[in-house]
């Protein structure tokens, strides 16, 4: 094993840790804005609903293009996540102009569709550390997404629940960042 073989996963781990902190901050800020605007459908809520999956796609795309990428990382699951998130941003833009229930159903379908690849990617990336929270997050995403989809199909217009979903997801990113940081410190010692 060469020096570059041992430092590349560490640099990727450090970069991934920083990304997890950014994703935590974004999710928390986004959730606060959704809670504040969820009662009033309109262009602000539409912009917020579109922004979240676009940010998710950008974050996963960054992971795919990272120079310090873990070579064992699951690219196929991440590519699926990017494609699904970009398509959902368009669908949410349209659905939010139809009704909050339509937007909730699309959000639910996305949570299921992105939760499965997240779960697969985290299971495959577990050797890099800090992935147990991401495994849990992917599983919870599938379950919560199913609930949102069912609520939307039944005509519920309570879109505020997606803010709580994002906040919980943000907490999982924070826990992953902290755990990954502890693992990296142990490796450095």
TrEMBL record:
Domain of life: Bacteria
UniProt keyword annotation of Transcription regulation present: no
Bilayer-crossing regions: 20-38, 44-64, 76-95, 101-123, 135-153, 159-184
Signal peptide annotation: none
Key words of the record: Membrane, Transmembrane, Transmembrane helix
The name this protein goes by in its record: Integral membrane protein
Organism lineage: Bacteria, Bacillati, Actinomycetota, Actinomycetes, Streptosporangiales
């Amino acid at each position: 094993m060469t020096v570059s073989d041992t430092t590349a996963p560490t640099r990727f781990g450090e970069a991934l840790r920083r990304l997890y902190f950014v994703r935590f901050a974004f999710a928390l800020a986004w959730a606060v804005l959704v809670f504040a605007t969820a009662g009033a459908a309109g262009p602000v809520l539409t912009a917020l609903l579109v922004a979240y999956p676009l940010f998710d796609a950008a974050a996963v795309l960054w992971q795919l293009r990272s120079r310090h990428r873990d070579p064992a990382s699951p690219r196929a699951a991440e590519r699926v996540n990017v494609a699904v998130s970009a398509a959902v941003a368009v669908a949410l833009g349209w659905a939010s102009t139809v009704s909050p229930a339509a937007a909730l159903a699309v959000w639910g379908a996305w949570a299921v569709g992105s939760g499965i690849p997240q779960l697969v990617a985290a299971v495959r990336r577990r050797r890099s550390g800090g992935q147990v929270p991401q495994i849990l997050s992917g599983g919870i995403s599938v379950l919560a997404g199913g609930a949102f989809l069912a609520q939307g199909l039944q005509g519920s217009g309570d879109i505020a629940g997606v803010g709580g979903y994002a906040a919980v997801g943000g907490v999982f990113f924070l826990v992953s960042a902290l755990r990954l940081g502890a693992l990296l410190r142990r490796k450095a010692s």
